[in-house]
Amino acid sequence: MDTRRAHVATAKQPMGEFVQQAATGLATGSVYAVLALAIVLIYQSTKVVNFAQGEMAMLSTFIAWSWLSRFDYWPAFFLTLAVSALLGAALERVALRPVESAPALNSVIVTLGLFTIFDSLALWRWGGVPRPFPSPGVFSGSPLAVGTITISRLNIGIFCTSVVIMALLFAFLNFTKAGLAMRAAAENPAAARMVGIRVAHMLSIGWALSAAVGAVAGMLLAPILALQPSMMFGVIIFAFAAAVLGGLNSLPGAIVGGLTLGIAQNLAGTYVSPHTGSIDVTVAFLVIVLVLVVKPAGLLGRQVKRRV
Amino acid sequence: MDGALTARRVAGLALFALVAAFPYLYRLPPFDQVLDPFRTFQATRLMIWLVVLMGLNLLTGYSGQISLGHGALVAIGAYTAAVLMREYGVPVVLAVLAAGVFTGAIGFLLGLPALRLTGPYLAIATLAMMLALPQILKLNGIRELTGGVSGLLLSTPRAPGAVDGFMTDRQWLYYACAVPALVMTLLAWNVTRSHVGRAFIALRDAEIGAQQMGINVPLYKMIAFALSAFYAGIGGGLFVFTEGFMSPDTFDVNLSITMLVVVVLGGLTSIGGTVFAAFLMTFRNDLVDAMASLGVLKVPGAIVPGKEQAPETLRGALYGTVLILTVVFMPQGLAGFMRGLQERRPWKRWLQAARMPRRRTVPVGHPASPARKTRGGER
Question: Which residues of A touch B127 (CB under 8 A)?
Fold first, then answer.
C-alpha cells in the first residue's frame, strides 16, 4: 500500500513511524479481514477451503470494471455484489454439490480447478495488462493528518467500507431469520433440518454471501493493485494466513487475524525488509506454520472434537 | 517362480526391454519414423516426473494429505543438489541423494503440524510455502548461495569418458534418470504393498479406526511426509542435473497445481496411475496443442466475437474443467477407469441394457435408495 511517502515524511520520529505504519497496516489488514471472512463463511458451513476465493474476487472486480463504463461507481458496486452472489450460489450448485459427500480431498481439488478456470478465463477475456480501477470520489483528495500521522483518504475509505461490510454481515447473521438459519445449518445440519431449515439452500446462500464479500475485497484492492488476472495472487495467501490465525471456523477471528496480519506485514516491511530483502509472504507462511504448531484452532476458533 | 512364460510376464519383459533400449531405438527401421533424439530428452523428463509424481501420489493418494506446494519441495531438492555440486564439488550421485534426504527432512518438519490436525491445513501450509519460497531464495544471506533472481547455472552434464563412442550425452542422461526412476518406482511398489502402505491407506480412510487397530498414526503420517518429500528431492536433484539451470521461478504455483491435476487424472493410490500421470505431465503441452488443433479451444472463441485468437490462454480453463470432471465422474482416474474396464467388463452390461427395457426400483431404506443419502459435513 501507499506507504513510501509516509515513510519519508515521518522517518525522523521512530515512534511516529511505528504508529504511521501500524495505521496504514490497519487499512491493508481490513481488506485481508474481509477476504478471510469470505473464506471462513464457506469453511464454516461446508468444511471446504475455497482456494478459488481470490480468483472469484478478481472475476467480480472485472465484472464491476466492465459496468463502470455504463454506470456510476455505487450502482456498479452493488450490481456487482448481486451478480457475484448469484455466481457464488451457482458455483455451489454446479461444481461443489456433486462432491459434497466425497472425501474432503475432492472438494479441495474442485476449488483448485475453479482457480485455474477463472484465472485462465480472465486472461483470455481481458488480457494480462494491468488496468486502472477507479475508487469513489469520496476516497480521493489530500491525505488526512491525525496527530503525528497522515493517512490517505483511500486507506480510510478502505477501512470504513470494510467495517461497514463486517457490521452488515454481523447484523445479518445475528438478527435476521435467514442468518440465524444459516448459522444453525452450519452448526448442526441434522438438527437444523429437523426444525425445518433447508440446509441445502443455506449452503448456497453461504457461497453467495462469500462471493459477494470477496467481491468487495476485490473492488477495494483494485485501485491500489491495478486490475489484472493475477491481482489476487499476492493477496490471497494473507487472507488464508488471517483465517488460520483467527481460526478457520470463527468470523470474529477472521477480522482479528486480518488486522493483525496487515499490521505485521507493514511493520515487517519497514523494520526487517531493509536488512533482509522483502519478506511479506514469508511472514504469512511463518504465521501459518506457527499457528498450526502452537494453537491449531487459531486465536478465536473452537477446537472441533470429532465423534467416532 | 516356475518360470512359465505367461502373457503378463512377456508384456513385462517387453516393456522393460523398451525402456532399456529406448535411447537407441530411433536408429532402428520401424521406430526411426516416429522417434528422434528429442524424444530421448522427453523420455528423460518423463523419468524425472515419474519420481516426483510418485512422491506426490504416496502423500495425496495413499495417505490422503494434499500438498499444493510440491513444486517447492522439488525446488528445494534442485537447489540443494545444485549448490552441493557447484560450491562443494560433490559428485552427482551423492548430491542427488543428499538433496533427497535434505528435502525429506524439510517435508518431515512441514508435516509436524499436520500430525495433530485433519483437514485442509496442510494444503494451506504447503501453498504458503510455495508462495514464500521464491522470496526466501532471494533473502540476504541465502541469495549468495542460490544466486537470487538470476538463479544457478551448472556446467552442461557430460557423459563420462568410459562410455565415449557408444553413448551420447543425451543417451547417458536418459540412463542416469531411468535407473533411479526404476529403483524409486520399485521402492514405491514395495512400500505400498507392505504394512506401511496399508497403514497409509487405513489412516487416510479412517484415522480413528486405524488408531484402534494399533497403527501409530503420527509415526506413519511422518513417514508419508518424509517419504514424499524424499521423492521430490531426488526428482529435483535429477532435474537440475539434467537441466543445468535452476531459478526461483522454475517451479511455481501453477506447476504445483498441474502436478496435482495429472496425479488425480492418472489415478490416486495407484502406481500405474502415476505412470499415466508422468506421461500426462511430460506431454501436457502436446496434448493441449492436439486438442487445440481439433478445435476444442476455438469453441469459446466462436461464442465471444473477437476472441478467436490466443486460445493459448484458455489452457488453464481446459485443465480446470478436466480436473473437476475427473473428480466428479472418474475419481479413481485413468488407472481406476482401466481397472473398471478390466474387472467389470461393462460392455456386457451395455449389451444387456440395449436388449432389455430399463426398469430399476430400489426399496426404501436400501443403501442405494435416494432417501438414505446424507449430506456431507453432517457429523
Answer: 51, 237, 240
Residues of chain B with pLDDT under 70: 1-5, 32-34, 114-119, 159, 161-165, 292, 295-312, 346, 354-379
Closest to A89 measured CA to CA, from A172, A210, A207: A207
Q: Locate the chain B residue with the closest alpha carbon to A123.
A: B313
How close is the nearest chain B Cα to the Cα of A137, in Å? Answer: 33
Nearest partner of B314 among B333, B291, B330, judged by Cα = B291
Task: Collect all residues of chain A within an 8 Å Cβ-Cβ radius of residue B315.
Answer: 120
pTM for the whole thing? 0.82
Query: Which of A239, A242, A236 is CA-nearest to residue A58?
Result: A236
Chain A residues in contact with B66 by the CB 8 A cut-off are: 105, 108-109
* A-proximal residues of B, 333-362, CB under 8 Å: none
Neighbours of A140 (CB within 10 A): 13
- pLDDT digits 0-9 by tens, B264-290: 888 888 888 899 899 988 888 787 777
Q: What is the DSSP letter of B166?
A: T
ipTM of the complex: 0.84
Identify the pLDDT of residue B302. Answer: 56
Contacts A–B by Cβ distance under 8 A: 170
Beta bridge partners of A131: A227
* B376 lies within 8 A of chain A by CB: yes
Contact between chains at B123 and A101 (C-beta distance less than 8 A): no
Query: Residue A144 in 3-state DSSP?
Result: strand
Q: Do residue A289 and residue B319 have CB atoms under 8 angstroms apart? A: no
- Overall CATH class of domain A4-294: mainly alpha
CB contact under 8 A, A104 and B119: yes
* Torsion A40-A41-A43-A45 (CA) sign: positive
Distances (CA, A) of B331 to B173, B272, B335: 35, 15, 10
User: Which residues of B are less than 8 Å from A278 in CB distance?
Assistant: 135, 138
For A292, the closest of B113, B138, B311 (CB atoms) is B113
Which residues are paired to A145 by β-bridges?
Answer: A150
| Residues of chain A under the 50 pLDDT cut | 1-11, 308
CA distance B204 to chain A (A): 10
What is residue A161's three-state secondary structure?
A: helix
Chain centroid to CA B138: how far?
Answer: 28
Residue A136 neighbours by CB under 8 Å, 6+ apart: A73, A74, A77, A157
Phi-psi category of A147—alpha, beta or left, where left has phi over 0 and alpha has psi -120 to 50? left
Per-residue cell: B14: 517387453
- The partner residues of B367 in beta bridges, in order of sequence, read none
Q: Return contacts of A167-176, CB within 8 angstroms, 24+ apart.
A: A169/A37, A169/A209, A169/A213, A169/A251, A170/A251, A172/A209, A173/A251
Chain segment B117-159, per-residue pLDDT in tens: 666 778 888 888 888 888 888 887 777 777 777 778 777 777 6
pLDDT digits over A76-117, tens only? 999 999 999 999 999 999 888 888 877 777 888 899 899 989
B131 touches chain A (CB under 8 A): yes
Three-state SS across A228-246? CCCCCHHHHHHHHHHHHHH
